[in-house]
Amino acid sequence: MTTQPAVQVITLPDAGTYRVDPERSSVTYSSRHMFGLGKVRAGFTISSGLLNVSSTLAGSSARATIDAASFDSANERRDHDVKGRGLLDAAAFPRITFSSTGIREDRGAILLAGTVAMHGVEAAVEVKVLSWEAPEPGLVSVTAQASRLDRYSFGITGSRGFVGRSFDLAFQVVAVRTGR
Predict the structure, then answer these.
(1) 170: part of which helix (H) or strand (E)?
(2) For every one of its 180 residues, what pLDDT tens digit does the chain have, with 9 covering 90 and above?
(3) Cα–Cα distance measured from residue 85 to residue 157, given in angstroms and rounded to the nearest whole number
(4) CATH number of the domain at 16-179, out of 2.40.128.110, 3.30.950.10, 3.40.50.720, 2.102.10.10?
């Protein structure tokens, strides 16, 4: 006897515009460093964002802005280096932005295609939405993951060997409905 995999039913929140709440939202960065021997975890602050929920998944969209200077790994020297000219260059490029270009369902998962603008370069990314819930009316909670992003595709090529080439981003976003 074979068991069929459970089918995840995607239920969209009420249609409308939802503003990201920066106080309740976060981005976690993880990568390797020191020639792949160590793991680095850090956080970023989402400064603003909007989720536009349509009556259909394909009609919905998302955008967010992250403060590049908010990188925080709890290691002052590392944070200074990452925010400096050799890597993020947060003084010259203070914002990291994401804008969706399409949303689709694939085998029960929501995949959010979009572009990230960082360090003066735009690159295509795909974000997998792990959960999308409306815990109460007028509120949306989204957990998502972007895996194996290549920092070289954003023109961030400094500290080869010491800073990993690929990185992952985990998003924990809470948004509040602002209108229809």
Answers:
(1) strand 163-179
(2) 555 555 455 567 788 999 999 999 999 988 766 444 668 888 999 999 999 989 888 899 999 999 999 999 998 988 898 888 878 889 999 999 999 999 998 887 889 999 989 888 898 999 999 888 888 889 999 999 988 877 667 766 655 555 666 778 899 999 999 965
(3) 11
(4) 2.40.128.110
